[in-house]
Amino acid sequence: MKNKKNVNIITLGCSKNTVDSERLMRQLKLNDFNLIDDPNKAETVIINTCGFIEAAKEESVNTILRAVEQKKKGKIKKVIVAGCLSERYAKELKNEIPEVDAFFGTEKYEGILNELGGKLKRELLGERTLSGPAHTAYLKISEGCDHPCSFCAIPLMRGLHKSKPIEELVKEAEFLSRNNTKELILIAQDTTDYGKDIYGERCLHKLLKELSNIEGIEWIRLMYAYPSHFPKKVINEIAQNKKVCNYVDIPLQHISDRVLKSMRRGVTSQGIKKLVEEFRAKIPNVVLRTTFIVGYPNETKDCFKLLCNYVEETKFDRIGVFTFSVEENTTSFILGDPIPGKVKEERKNILMEIQKNISYDKNNKLIGKYLNVLIERKEGEYYIGRSYRDAPEVDGEILLPVKNTDVIFGKFYNVKIYDCNEYDLFGKIRK
Hints:
Blueprint: E1 6-11, H1 15-30, E2 34-35, E3 44-49, H2 54-72, E4 78-83, H3 84-96, E5 102-103, H4 109-115, E6 136-140, E7 142-143, H5 154-158, E8 162-163, H6 166-178, E9 183-187, H7 196-199, H8 204-212, E10 219-222, H9 232-240, E11 244-249, H10 257-263, H11 269-282, E12 287-294, H12 301-314, E13 318-323, H13 341-364, E14 370-379, E15 382-386, E16 398-401, E17 412-420, E18 425-429
Parallel strand pairs: 1-2, 1-3, 3-4, 4-5, 6-9, 9-10, 10-11, 11-12, 12-13, 16-18
Antiparallel strand pairs: 7-8, 14-15, 14-17, 15-16, 17-18
Helix pairs in contact: 6-8, 8-9, 12-13
């Protein structure tokens, strides 16, 4: 007989989902459930789904179907579905996959625990069981989004913007620090909107300052910053605060005014260019990461050419490129999906090829220089680490030959760069 308290959690989608799963995992542990990695050895499987774009929805549905198949074979007793897809399509999912025992939306920890016979320990909601290495942790500072972006379904799944109070975030960060976290990665649907709903003003700069006072935290990294109202005080805080990485992740999505207007981004190409110039003028050695969407319904060949020229001229440190996905109940839905998938993929590949050359040139200029590197793991002949220039999972890494090197994971080392490829650097620890 399987232990009825054996639970497996499958997390799909973005880092926000990761944080939700980690909070739930902690609550399950506090209720004496056993968290196990193998779903075939679990009594209950919880799937934390993503519903952002078509590919993510397909992955979520396929994962649910696989779990249901295992349930039919008697390998799983209970299947619970939670997260964004469940929030958005609960009714449809119940009709299509009735074998699922229960559906819950986002952050419905109490309902899931009640379903399993547990009880929510509300006063400990800031505690988490990290799913990755302890030295790096995401800190979700708000939930939901108030922006009307035409292509985005996030408000349908996560609701409007809701900030978490500074004192709660500090308490959560202190818990993480006590458990050996060295790097906090601030995430939200829009981190720059932080505080406006509960403090009457955007006050991300105040949060950064408070978090930097926590002993043991050495890096604070800012992700998901929105470009239309980037607070000047945040730029100054990044520039002056030694614990805040000189790194900004700011999804721009496009540079054509025609496309930006239809996307309802609330910013013009001129506004974007001015902001990028300000980052580079005020933040020493700033690393800029951004994302773009290609194949938006009104993206003409000329619009795409504008985007290519802008990427080539601006030379971002990192970019990600997504192809447009038509989403029902978004304002862009009425535009349809006129650009063929093959053309979208071609545009994505062209943009990434431009960036590959830029990335190589930037990496090549780092040869001979020293970087403070956080060592994370070992793979084959190399230890793998990151500098302030690199966010986990989405950016490049720094590889250090294992031979004659003795390191501790989760510790910082002074590393001299001696070689590179398009995305990664190779270095040796300074003795």
